[in-house]
Specification:
By secondary structure, the chain is mainly alpha-helical. 65% of the residues lie in helices and 0% in strands. It has seven helices and no strands.
């Protein structure tokens, strides 16, 4: 299980990602708040991260990094329009997390083939398993 510092780092990263297009939409905020609650972070601490982001902490667990990448994919797909800037930023976040370039590209390429561009978790895990083995 990840610790509190790692949880705050994950949320900070997601907030930074959501702020790519300057403002955070209501649906993005609600999604992020839901993730915060799932991670057992109170709303006060969550809201604090918007003003004072936490330094990035690299997750040791490969599976936790895949889960975080999946959260970012879901967050990106909440909006109606996906810009190239968002795709590049998502790709760079994945690389920074230590995920494979080819696996990240495969997920991004295959997103369009799923309803609402939401890659099912099992499918995403299978993509990264190939790279990890």
């Amino acid at each position: 299980m990840i610790n509190r510092v790692e949880k705050l780092s994950l949320l900070s990263e997601m907030i930074a990602f959501a702020q790519t297009d300057a403002s955070i939409k209501s649906i993005e905020y609600k999604f992020l708040l839901g993730v915060a609650k799932q991670l057992e972070i109170c709303q006060e601490d969550f809201d604090y991260l918007f003003e004072f982001p936490v330094t990035y902490v690299h997750l040791k667990s490969h599976s936790e990094r895949i889960v975080q990448f999946h959260r970012l994919v879901l967050l990106m797909n909440l909006g109606q329009h996906m810009s190239n800037k968002e795709l590049v930023k998502l790709h760079n976040f994945g690389l920074r997390m230590g995920l494979g370039h080819e696996s990240i590209n495969r997920v991004l390429d295959l997103m369009d083939s799923f309803p609402n561009k939401i890659v099912p978790p099992d499918f995403l895990i299978d993509i990264f398993k190939v790279q990890y083995n």
